[in-house]
Specification:
alpha/beta, ten-stranded mixed beta sheet, two-stranded antiparallel ribbon, 14 strands, 39% helix, globular
Length: 363
Amino acid sequence: MSNKKILVLPGDGIGNEVMAEVLKIIDWLSKTRSMSFDISERLVGGTAYDKEGDSISDETMQEALDADAVLFGAVGGPQWDNVEREKRPEAALLRLRKELDLFANLRPAVVFDALAEASPLKLNLVKGLDILILRELTSGVYFGQPRGIEEYEPGKQKALDTQIYFDYEIDRIARVAFDLAKKRNNKVTSVEKANVMETGVLWRQVVKKTHEDYSDITLENMLADNCAMQLVRNPKQFDVLVTDNLFGDLLSDCAAMLTGSLGMLPSASLGAEIDGKRNGLFEPVHGSAPDIAGENKANPIATILSFAMMLRYNLNQQDLAKSLEDVIQKVLNEGFRTADLYSSDDQTLVSCSKMGDLILERL
């Protein structure tokens, strides 16, 4: 495998702790699997704001553009709540997504057998659950203009956010969904609010048109509010679920809790493949958890699984990604748990670094 340039952005809070466990695995791969990585590390989020004056510097952004993939930890914390919006920790993530054109956000909701009973839903509803939610990431209401808060009468204010989608933006995310479904169970559920939103009407029209090129895939159209209900009522009916930026944000968090812990969930944000290169950013779903930062209590599994997604989707190392996922399943089956997963005396409570060591030992 040729040398792969990976930009590591640990960020704030527990970001450094969970990223350290991934770096152990990358180092091991470099030494044992003839894999070559060029690793660089930069500041992002609140720590970048404190030291560099912005949540992501132009220099860091350029490194991200030049890299084969970006590994991202977590950003944010109460000490940055009053920072101006365009420089807040979360703004760094929005800039990365926009400038790297990472329009396809993949969030799997997979229930590991050992953790099925940790789900708030009944065992029969979630055991064996394997859903892939595909969220359009660079358009919609989070980026639409005009937006803002303004005074419409003296002493009175109104707020405005604009939902905009172009047909080509819908078509390209739909094609990713259908292509992914081919490698899974050949079913796509497209989610919108065509009953009350014009963007929903266009979304449904374009997805149906794109589906004509994928006649072997089953397409189901569903309203977003019904989808939220169905995720709780009967989640196994879904395979690949594709939706817009706002609904994807909400529904992926809903699906996340089916698994029992945000500490288990990875994500990948991908761009289009251009000249053999596909930009990708890989990050855990969980936040920076400032309440446990520095205490070695965090769960590193979501970040390690995000690295597995990088191996699968950016580095074409599917077998190695599967091996890493299988090892995590093995460690969990042996009863090892970080604090977020620990629930009974027959389990073994371990720290963040110990969980990383156990996974590495079994690799």
